[in-house]
Amino acid sequence: MLRRAVDMLRALPAGPSRGFASSARASEGYPFNAGVVVKPPTPIPTPSLLKPKNGWSVVEHVNKTLREQYDQRGLLDLFARRGPQRLKTGSVLSVTTWTGPEKKNSTLFSGVLMAVRRRGVDTSFTLRNVVQQTGAEMSFKVCSPLLKEIKIIRRAEGRKKDTIRDLRRARVNYLRDRPDIMHQIAAALKSHAAQEGGGKAAKGKGTGRK
């Protein structure tokens, strides 16, 4: 019985097994219809974007696309980690926001840049001010459609005299317990408001004379 089985296996024609198709048979036409021409599959293009090193090319492409869509005013440069235009913690800002999607009314909030949370197009920052001897904080999204304007009152440029100090941190929560620094910032806000009020009054007088 064993010899018969061996002889039967030897008598089978040589060729590939049923589980694997040879390249010769794959290159031939359709076996059930001679008029059908089977074309080889076209290779899928693989640009460099699909084979990045550690995935960084994909991340950069996505961030660039989202930034072109949501940050057309270039406000993210003000809150970047590095750059000549970036704002440092301790700077005094004035932010104007719309109260609703209709964009009819707006509100103004001024304060010291207390924290920056960098998350691409989801970047946000926090301002702190003292209103009627009570600390008030507000957070804003940089790419929010309700953000109307960001005005820089004073920059934190270093540790020189008559300038606001560069606090050299991404978050300065200790300002809540430092009233001396907050008084300095409040003085800067008052002087800026006085300068703006004087300029508007001068313009009003000029138009009245005409």
From TrEMBL:
SUPFAM superfamilies per the UniProt record, alphabetical: Translation proteins SH3-like domain
Molecular function GO terms recorded: structural constituent of ribosome
Highest taxon of the lineage: Eukaryota
Biological processes per GO annotation: translation
GO cellular component labels: mitochondrial large ribosomal subunit
Keywords associated with the record: Ribonucleoprotein, Ribosomal protein
Ribonucleoprotein keyword on record: yes
Keyword Chloroplast: no
Family indicated by similarity: Belongs to the bacterial ribosomal protein bL19 family.
Protein name stated in the entry: 50s ribosomal protein l19
Source organism of the structure: Trichosporon asahii var. asahii (strain CBS 8904) (Yeast)
